[in-house]
Amino acid sequence: MATRKAVRTAFEKCLLAVEPRSIVRNAISLNPSLLKIADYNYSLSNSTKIVVIAFGKASILMAKGARDQLKSSLLQKTIVIAPEQQKGIENELENDTEILYGARDNLPDEKSVFATRKVISEIRDFDSESTIFLFLISGGGSALLTSPSAPLDLAEKLETIRIMQAHGATIQELNTIRQNLSDVKGGKLLREIKKGCSIALIISDVIGNPVELIASGPTVIPAHQQDKFIISNILESLKINKLELPVNVKNVLENHEKEQLPENTSRFQNFIISSNNFALRAAAEYLTSSGYNSTIVTSSLSGNAAEIGKKFAEIITEKSITSSHLLKNSNLTIENYPIALLFGGETTVHLSENPGKGGRNQEMVLSCLDALKTRVPAHNFTFLSAGTDGQDGPTDAAGAIISNEDLPLNSLLNSSEFLQNSDSYNFWRQFKGGANHILTGPSGTNVMDIQILLLDQL
Question: Which cysteines does the record link by disulfide bonds?
Fold first, then answer.
């Protein structure tokens, strides 16, 4: 019963559950005198105006959802910053919506910098005591809303990100450093709002949903600002020598001082409206209705993708699965087969010296397949790992899937060599003609990654 079709359909249910347009639409309600956004109420007057500012992988669809609910008479301006590869999905956005693109392959570029300057200019132009700035924020926002602090330039910031990613930095570590190299991240965007108020509807792509780190927290005033000791600890934990960093970056981080930020008043509100948990619940509901004993194990899976892949292989080959590393602290009780184990979160990849092409989900599944070369499955299984944004690393694949039927073919390609070369994409492209790739195209959102493991008795 552990079938690929069930797993693929369950992943599709994940994507439907976190569809940004409907999520934003459900978060906003309007009557003649009252605007309700998430859990916050605004009394409307004849002078009330709303400026919608959306940035991130879900920005276009989130903007559509907001405009579905808001009267045109209230809307002063809508400005959207979307990933370059999403050009063409902006249909149904009205002509008065300004859409800017940037951050191809999820890295900041000069287009991102230009778009950020445009956002700052619009905030300054429309700021008034009767203005509500509605921010729609999603994963990828860090790359799209970019304004390096002087004297840094974009190339220096990019080099810093590259170094950190090569050392396996988590999104939390990356965004903490980004905040300290930026004029808009870490609540600094709010410095531009002198009179109006802001509310942010946020789709989380960070484990644990820390609102101050999602998209590097441009609309969130930190409860405690980082000091240079926190920054040093991050670099030391990643084994990054400061001498590896560009000189200007090193100087900015070493001379870090507390920022002058607005007081954290009721003028600035932030609400998380979607996360990895929403996707996992949808998959669990579908699989339960399909006859599986379904369990959400965690939405906080982290660590090295290749090592996690080996741990999934351990579950597959253990008769008593609850003794495996990934499950031993889960309080999981297995009563009846078939079972569905669901995981969510975000892992990292340590790149080889001359890396090929790949992503953490493809690497995790490849590592699992490679580990099964020397171990015998104790169950019929199907295992999928895929990113909800549809883009695993700088590739056109969301992830990969394997099951028992793939094991006899495992010797046809040298999976270990592809792993060592950080070249998981090309392995899956060649393996069975690409049949094991998960190809969804860009989903228009991002709530991190999903792992689904179906197990049945042999």
Answer: none
**Model confidence over 287-334: pLDDT tens digits?**
999 999 999 999 999 999 999 999 999 999 998 888 788 887 777 777
Q: Roughly how many angstroms between the first and final C-alpha of the chain, as a whole number?
A: 10
Angle of helix 228-237 relative to helix 171-179, nearest 10 degrees, comes to 140
- Omega before 32 cis (within 30°)? no
Which residue intervals of 245-325 are DSSP H helices? 247-254, 276-289, 305-317
Burial of 45 (0-12, 13-18, 19+ CB in 10 A): exposed
Instruction: Tell me how far apart the alpha carbons of residues 299 and 410 are, in angstroms, rounded to a whole number.
Output: 30
Architecture of the domain whose range is 20-274: 3-Layer(aba) Sandwich (3.40)
User: Reduced to 3 states, what is the DSSP secondary structure of residue 68?
Assistant: helix
Do 345 and 296 touch, CB atoms closer than 8 A?
Answer: no
Contact by Cβ (8 Å): 393, 305: no
Length of the chain, in residues: 458
d(Cα 202, Cα 345) in Å, to the nearest integer?
17
Select from 200, 203, 159, 161 the least CA-distant residue to 178: 161
| H/E stretch holding 202 | strand 197-203
Q: Which residues contact 26 (CB under 8 A, 6 or more apart)?
A: none
Q: Work out the angle at residue 59's Cα, subtended by the Cα atoms of residues 54 and 65, and round it to the nearest 5 degrees.
A: 90
CATH H-level, domain 4-9+276-456: superfamily: MOFRL domain (3.40.1480.10)
Name the token pair of 306: 């290749």
Can you read off the two tokens belonging to residue 374? 């020397």
- Give the C-alpha separation, 256 to 206, whole Å: 25
- Low pLDDT (below 70) residues in the chain: 1-2, 90-92, 224-229, 256-259, 264
Is 144 in contact with 58 (CB distance < 8 Å)?
no
